[in-house]
Amino acid sequence: MISPAVTLMTRLGLSDDELCEILDVDPIAVITGELDHRPELPILLALTNEPAAQLGDETLQRWLRSAGPAGRPVDLLRARDFAGFEDAVEVLAQRGFVLRGGRPRQ
After folding, report:
1. What is the domain extent for residue 67?
2. Is residue 103 part of a domain?
């Protein structure tokens, strides 16, 4: 059985260090699965469930590291701005994954 932490890490394409920073835990807690005291984990899984199902993990991972109206979602997570991340997920649900920049193809 895959742990919820590994599911989140895989879904969002997070490094070990990023996961520990986001959940405010040390690597031992992740390895041993002692994350029951972290309410963020089930909330983040619930927030990203639908986008992952609709877009797929690869697109969700690209979105996480792309600049949006409130900055890069990964930066919101690393700052533990979970309300800001929830808002970014809501924008994703409303607008879809929009890439900006570059010149249009001719």
Report:
1. 4-95
2. no
The pLDDT tens digits of the residues spanning 16-63 come to 999 999 999 988 888 887 877 778 899 999 999 999 999 999 999 999
Q: Number of folded domains in the chain?
A: 1
User: How far is the C-alpha of 83 from the C-alpha of 101, rounded, in Å?
Assistant: 27
56 in a domain, yes or no?
yes
**Tens-place pLDDT, residues 56-89:** 999 999 999 998 888 899 999 999 999 999 999 9
Q: What is the DSSP track for the chain?
A: ---HHHHHHHHHT--HHHHHHHHT--HHHHHHT--TT-THHHHHHHHHHHHHHHH-HHHHHHHHTS-BTTB-HHHHHHTT-HHHHHHHHHHHHHH------SPPP-
Residue type (1 letter), 103: R
